[in-house]
Amino acid sequence: MYCRARGEADPKSSFLSDRLRPCPTRYQESVFHHWFNEALASKGALIVIDRSHNQVIGSSRYYEFDEKKREVTIGYTFLARDRWGGETNRELKHLMLPHAFQWVDTVWFNVDSQNVRSQRAMEKIGGRLSHRAIRQLTDRTQEYLLYKIDKPSRFD
Predict the structure, then answer these.
(1) What GO MF terms are annotated (predicted)?
(2) 14-65 pLDDT tens trace
(3) pTM for this predicted structure
(4) What CATH number is given for 2-155 in this structure?
């Protein structure tokens, strides 16, 4: 697997509807268009490609970079359904974390409080639950959990 910067020419169909996502209607073109453009504008969006089949299997991004605090958030991760529950998410985060630790000391992850699958995935990669927070989405309030991973000494 490898990642590269996501571009306008990349397939938009790599994102599937998931009722556990904050916006389960994101697969609808009218809803997705705004999100996709926001991801491109962030300059932190990545496309995830299965090297053996040269096939797009998902996307993720870096966001909320704070140079002074030396922190960044990794999220908006979407994987093809056939990659759920396996090693793909762990492998992806193991690609993204060393890159982030070149510039930051802490990486944050925001996980919906109802998304047990993502909570378990965070724990598997070493994420520690820091605290809970609330945010206002377009149509509802969402409680989410903030996990963090601090830079290991081997990256100093």
Answers:
(1) acyltransferase activity, transferring groups other than amino-acyl groups
(2) 444 444 445 555 556 666 666 666 766 777 888 899 999 988 888 899 999 9
(3) 0.79
(4) 3.40.630.30
